[in-house]
Amino acid sequence: MPAATLAPSSANASFPTAPSLRRRIACMLYEGVLLFGVLSASTALFLLVRPALQKLGLDSPYAIQGWSFLVMGLYFTWFWQRSGQTLAMQTWRMRIETAAGVRPRWPQAALRYVLAWLWLPPSAALGHALGLVKGPFVGVLGAGLLIWILLAWLDPRRQFLHDRLARTRLVDLRAPRP
Fold it and tell me: Which of 102, 106, 109, 175 gets the highest tally of CB atoms within 10 A of its CB?
């Protein structure tokens, strides 16, 4: 990819504009649609090798979850380190970059992926502590995710907490409005 397309997207290179929360949520929803296909294919592959895992004693209720987490991690980190954009991010014209304005390398992209899941353990722990199941438990998880997303409003540059911790930023690639 040409260097010009990796430059920060605004005239002020130190503080590029972040996409609105509305656009980020729309991008996340579109990403979910794309991940449905990725996870369907990876689940089919897992089911093909599952008999071998059972013979080796490596099949547990958490094996498919670990496999899915790994597959999604590879999906995101591959796109982020390659161009700074997943397919959904290309559609919604946003990109992940480092503070220097370049795409993240593998370790930083992987760190961002892992940190993006930090909302889940406290939400799940709260749901379990309250003895919730099914719908109410999913509601607590949804509330935890919503709180995580809304934390971006507390950041002066409107970045997610996982971006601040990973030293990355989400930038809007649309032309600035006059």
Answer: 109
Question: What is the block-wise mean pLDDT of the chain (178 residues), using blocks of 10 residues?
Answer: 44 72 95 98 97 93 95 98 97 96 97 97 97 96 95 92 96 88
**φ, ψ dihedrals at 170, nearest 5°:** -100, 125
Structure token pair of residue 118:
């930090």
Tokens of 40: 């369907």
Same structural domain for residues 94 and 19? yes
For residues 39 and 65, state if they share a domain: yes
Sign of CA dihedral 110, 77, 21, 42: negative
User: What is the signed CA dihedral for 121, 154, 22, 97, rounded to 10 degrees?
Assistant: -80
Which residue range forms the structural domain that includes residue 41?
3-116+160-172
Distance CA 95, CA 98 (A): 10
The whole-model pTM stands at 0.87
Whose structure tokens read 């997610």?
160
Which two three-digit tokens encode residue 43? Answer: 């689940």
d(CA 164, CA 158): 10
Q: Which residue has the tokens 């496999």?
A: 67
Q: Which residues pair with 98 in a beta bridge?
A: 168
Question: Domain for residue 178, yes or no?
Answer: no
The confidence score (pLDDT) of residue 122 equals 96
